[in-house]
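Supplementary notes for students who missed Thursday's class. We covered one full example, reproduced here. Read the sequence, then the structure, then the short commentary at the end.
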Amino acid sequence: MKALSSVFSWQRGLVVGALLIATLLVGFALRGASVRSSAPPSTVPGSPGQSGAPATAAASEVPTPPAGPMLPTAARTSAAGTVVVQGAWGGAPGQFGRRRDPESNPEAPMAVAAGPAGQLAVVDQVNRRILRYKNGKLSGTVDLGGDTVQDLTLTRDGRLLVLDRLADGNVQSYGPDGKLLDTLSLGGKGVTDNGGVTGLFTDDDGIYVERDHESVVRIADASGRADPARPELLGRPSRDGRLLLAAAIGDRSTGDVVVRAVDRSTGLPAWEQAIRLGAPIVHIVALDSDRRGMIYLAVDVGHEAPTPPYALVDEKLVIARLGGGGAPRGVLETPPLPAADESFRPVTVDDDGTVFVMAGGDNGLTVTRYVFP
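Structure (token representation):
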């Protein structure tokens, strides 16, 4: 596969921070009925925003260096995947809650997160709980006080961190035994509107929240102790601790996306990679990484039919993997995410680079594992 790199002019280093903040795109795009556009085909559907969170930054397009040729077809793998978690709709152990309200978007589990050593966790907020899995088997349940948790992440020491931006306005920390350990307030320096928080992250250095799909605020150290300074970062921290990551749509109609990285230790630009997916972009679903330094970009692509109701056709989820310097290291093509239910983080990556995709269907919910060849 040929790298589609654009030359990163180091003279632009002084302005890269502002550009990254302006164009950071979140992967936890709310997946709801608004994804399907009723507009004429000249209007490509924008990136849908989470409930209460503006989608402006996620939907924006910025000038980017010209993209190279489309990623070669030979470099793409149509992946079937392996279902590792499966459960019917309902409230029994191992089942998942689903809510259909005529006055709001249908709601199902909001997020899935992968942790070390084969751990997975699913936010089953309709049933007010987190379901934890170990190597695909249900290993525990964490009871929640309400149904407004939307995101979660797993720490390397076994803690579970969950984001409630709508009701409690905090990050809750649960121990491996499922007991509540502590809470961290979202409001404070760097976060003036709890509803504008669009993601939760953790690494070996701290706990972070993303604000309005733009900057990332460190709210605590890795142990969970609140950070009064609450510094802002120029992108999402990579799992290996080396980079700060951002992605932007360059040209929605041709499927051009640019991923940019800043060296975390120096604050200087590290690399910039332009990718042409070859199909119109619906929205960016995920920007993630593994502990080996690989970067993963998941994008929902498809064409609008030329006649009403302008339904999406040929839709699929494209997952591109980038290696050192942003060089492409493979592309997976998977079935598209369903549009019926809202979700916050439907795609996650574990430490080893295995990709997990959460999707609801008529009969229940599945989490499917995909491995790059």
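Commentary. DSSP finds two helices and 25 strands in the chain. Helices lie at 13-23, 56-59. If anything here is unclear, bring it to office hours.
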